[in-house]
């Protein structure tokens, strides 16, 4: 233990009160009668979420104000009342002047509590050697930047949560843009459900739309292919899965045999094979049947393959007769290897047909994990999943089960292989708790739904629970930041984005749009054309 307390900076001029109760990390302070009074303007009243400090014998302990109360209000105005302040201890500064989370020396009864000086606030929020990146300012003192520690933020996943319209997309853009400013060789993949993020990154992003997306069918594993061809396995006979498994494995083996390779192949091995080979194998199998009635599962599988091949909307997955082994090129574009001044890949999923959206997202998430696994952490990747509650829902037995398992695997094991996950959601209560619980840093924007608040309370680290009562009162672009990616739990105001760096997520201008007439036939014709052509 250190023998000398760290130097006090402005402590003696801003006393709040004294400690009257200590219970673990919880403190109760009896506030001085003059705090907030006109006779002592320096001793202002503390605010919820403010960082205050307690001077112990050898350290300065810091705590968050989590509650203010008058336990016995006076009936007559002007009489002195007892005022109570509740604190949650978050860290301390020892004799070396460095702030550290956790408390080694707990305050005792009677210890004095003070407002924290600007100098000490800077020590708390701007820790040296943490590779911090600014994302905004601290609500308590807007002259102090709010920073995230990149390795802690990305190494253990993070989530951006809040009601629609509160600034989630802008918050994600601020965090990523500021990280990219310091780390230009990053590898970030964004699943963009609403085609918002391409404008936020400009020339530093590779935008992939359904028109130029390439995810050939042979990259699918068996679970994804089964979802695509058979659908809900509980609604179809087991024989369908058995037949599909057999013909896919055989088609892969036949092509490898032609190429004179001795590589072993399973149903999940991502090697090219011809769909014509699949249909031929199905036809041959049907020709050997004794009873025509037994051909029903073969016909179902065959017709589904032919239907997907003939549907132009699925051309990114079923490109045609020619089969090319372009897996390396696909990985290069998807994960930006080499970066070539475009460290971000924005995948616009808004135009992907709903029938295959779950399979596409599952494939991208799984490929991200598998690539990191087999590249041995050489290329750490951040996967940003917008509308995460859709892909990893709390309820079981949905069409997004493969995607949910892929995201769960990244959440549970991704850290070991260099895959970071950013979940963006407006309904955290509908998000699988097993996925959200793996996010060690949470940025919670305004949230008024009681169910969402209760769910977030259960998922949030203990040190940040006291701040949750502020959620309904947050302004746009403000958040409660909690977890290992930020120095301490706090309320932050995100930096404002430049006009050309904002996501395309504005609310429709009803008041202006409804003051003018749209009467051109060409307008409707263009809408019909885009609708029919799915672009």
From TrEMBL:
<protein>
    <submittedName>
        <fullName>DUF87 domain-containing protein</fullName>
    </submittedName>
</protein>
<dbReference type="Pfam" id="PF01935">
    <property type="entry name" value="DUF87"/>
</dbReference>
<dbReference type="InterPro" id="IPR008571">
    <property type="entry name" value="HerA-like"/>
</dbReference>
<feature type="domain" description="Helicase HerA central">
    <location>
        <begin position="133"/>
        <end position="367"/>
    </location>
</feature>
<dbReference type="InterPro" id="IPR002789">
    <property type="entry name" value="HerA_central"/>
</dbReference>
<dbReference type="InterPro" id="IPR027417">
    <property type="entry name" value="P-loop_NTPase"/>
</dbReference>
């Amino acid at each position: 233990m250190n023998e000398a307390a760290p130097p006090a900076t402005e402590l003696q001029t801003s006393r709040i009160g004294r400690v009257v109760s200590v219970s673990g990390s919880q403190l109760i302070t009896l506030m001085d009668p003059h705090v907030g009074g006109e006779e002592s303007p320096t001793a202002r009243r503390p605010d919820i979420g403010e960082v205050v400090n307690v001077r112990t014998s050898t350290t300065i302990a810091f705590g968050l104000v989590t509650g203010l109360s008058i336990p016995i209000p006076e009936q007559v105005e002007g009489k002195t009342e007892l005022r109570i302040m509740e604190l949650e201890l978050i860290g301390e500064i020892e004799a070396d002047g460095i702030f550290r989370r956790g408390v080694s020396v707990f305050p005792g009864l009677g210890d004095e509590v003070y407002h924290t000086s600007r100098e000490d606030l800077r020590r708390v929020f701007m820790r040296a050697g943490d590779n911090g990146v600014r994302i905004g300012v601290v609500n308590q003192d807007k002259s102090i930047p709010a920073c995230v520690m990149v390795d802690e933020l990305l190494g253990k996943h993070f989530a951006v949560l809040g009601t629609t319209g509160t600034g989630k997309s802008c918050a994600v853009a601020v965090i990523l843009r500021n990280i990219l400013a310091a780390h230009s060789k990053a590898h970030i993949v964004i699943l963009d459900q609403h085609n918002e993020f391409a404008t936020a990154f400009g020339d530093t992003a590779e935008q992939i739309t359904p028109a130029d997306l390439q995810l050939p069918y042979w990259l699918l594993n068996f679970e994804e292919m089964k979802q695509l061809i058979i659908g809900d396995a509980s609604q179809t006979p087991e024989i369908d899965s058995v037949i599909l498994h057999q013909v896919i494995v055989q088609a892969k083996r036949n092509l490898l045999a032609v190429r004179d390779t001795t590589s072993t192949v399973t149903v999940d091995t991502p090697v090219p094979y011809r769909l014509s080979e699949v249909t031929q194998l199905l036809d041959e199998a049907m020709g050997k049947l004794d009873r025509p009635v037994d051909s029903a599962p073969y016909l179902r599988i065959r017709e589904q393959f032919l239907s997907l091949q003939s549907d132009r909307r699925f051309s990114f997955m079923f490109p045609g007769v020619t089969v090319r082994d372009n897996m390396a090129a696909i990985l290069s574009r998807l994960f930006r290897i080499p970066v070539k001044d475009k460290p971000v890949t924005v995948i616009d999923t808004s135009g992907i047909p709903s029938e295959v959206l779950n399979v596409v997202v599952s494939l991208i998430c799984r490929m991200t994990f598998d690539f990191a696994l087999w590249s041995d952490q050489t290329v750490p990747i951040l996967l940003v999943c917008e509308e995460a509650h859709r892909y990893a829902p709390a309820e079981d037995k949905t069409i997004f089960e493969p995607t949910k398992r892929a995201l769960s695997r990244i959440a549970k094991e991704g850290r070991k292989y260099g895959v970071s996950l950013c979940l963006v959601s407006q309904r955290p209560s509908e998000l699988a708790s097993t996925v959200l619980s793996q996010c060690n840093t949470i940025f919670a924007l305004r949230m008024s739904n009681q169910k969402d608040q209760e769910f977030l309370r259960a998922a949030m680290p203990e040190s940040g629970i006291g701040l949750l009562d502020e959620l309904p009162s947050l302004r746009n672009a403000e958040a409660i930041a909690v977890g290992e990616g930020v120095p301490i739990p706090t309320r932050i105001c995100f930096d404002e984005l430049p006009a050309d760096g904002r996501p395309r997520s504005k609310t429709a201008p009803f008041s202006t749009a409804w003051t003018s007439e749209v009467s051109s036939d060409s307008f409707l014709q263009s809408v019909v054309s885009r609708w029919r052509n799915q672009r």
